[in-house]
Amino acid sequence: MNKNYETFARVYDAIMDDTLYDKWTDFSLRHLRKTKERKKLLELACGTGIQSVRFSQAGFEVTGLDLSQEMLDVAQKRAASAKQKIDFMQGNMLDLSQAGTYDFVTCYSDSICYMQDEAEVGDVFKQVYDCLEEDGVFIFDVHSTYQIDEAFPGYSYHENADDFAMVWDSYEDEAPHSVVHELTFFIEEEDGRFSRYDEIHEERTYEVLTYDILLEQAGFKSFKLYADFEDKEPTDTSARWFFVCQK
C-alpha cells in the first residue's frame, strides 16, 4: 500500500475541488489578524499539505498535524517543491499536549465531523483551547445538519480518469445527523493492472447549540458563526458552517 500511497494521495487531491483551498485561504485571511509577533499557526488534519502551503505562502509560520504519516510524507514533498518551510507532525487532534502553542489553529474540510461523538468533539475543543495563546483564534468548519440530513443521503459520484476510477456513494447512518460515505477506488499499478481499494468514511454533525455548548465548556469566550466561506449568517440550506472562536 505504501508504494501506492502517493498515487492514492494524488487521487484524493485530484478529486478535491482545488478552488476550495482558495476559499479556505481567503476566509482565514479575513479572520486571522496576523502581525509580526502573532503568526504561528497550527493546521489540524492537514492531509497532503495543500492548505498548509497556502498558509505559509501567506506569511504564517505553519505547523501541520495529521494522523496519517503517509499523507504527511506527501505534504513534506509538496512543501519542499513550493520552497516553503513547514513543520509537519504525525498526531491525533484528541491529544495536542506535545504540539506546542500557537496564535491560530485551523481545522478545515469538515475534519471535526470525523469525531465519533460529541464527547470527542468537546475533547478536541479543549485540546485546541489549551494550545492557543491568550486571545488566540480557532477556526473550523463542519457540515450543516441540512447537508448531512438532506443533501448527502442518496448522493452518488463517479469519476473516470486514465489511471484511476472512483465510485462514491453516501447513505444515512444510525446516529442523528450522521452519514456514511462508501468510496471505492480503482488505481492503475505500474504493470498496467488496476487494484481496488475500499474506504468507509463516517461523518457526524450537531445542532449549532451543541457546538456552542462544547466551545463554552472548553473555555472559549466567544464565537462567530458564518456559512459557505462567506461572512454571512447561515440559512436553512447552508451546506457548511464556519466557527471563528476566540480564546
Automatic annotation (TrEMBL):
One of its GO terms (molecular function) is methyltransferase activity. Residues 65-92 form a coiled coil. It comes from the Bacteria. Residues 42-136 form the Methyltransferase domain. InterPro entries: Methyltransf_25, SAM-dependent_MTases_sf. SUPFAM superfamilies: S-adenosyl-L-methionine-dependent methyltransferases. The keyword Methyltransferase applies. Signal peptide: none annotated. One of its GO terms (biological process) is methylation. Pfam families: Methyltransf_25. Keywords: Coiled coil, Methyltransferase, Transferase. This is SAM-dependent methyltransferase. It comes from Streptococcus saliviloxodontae.
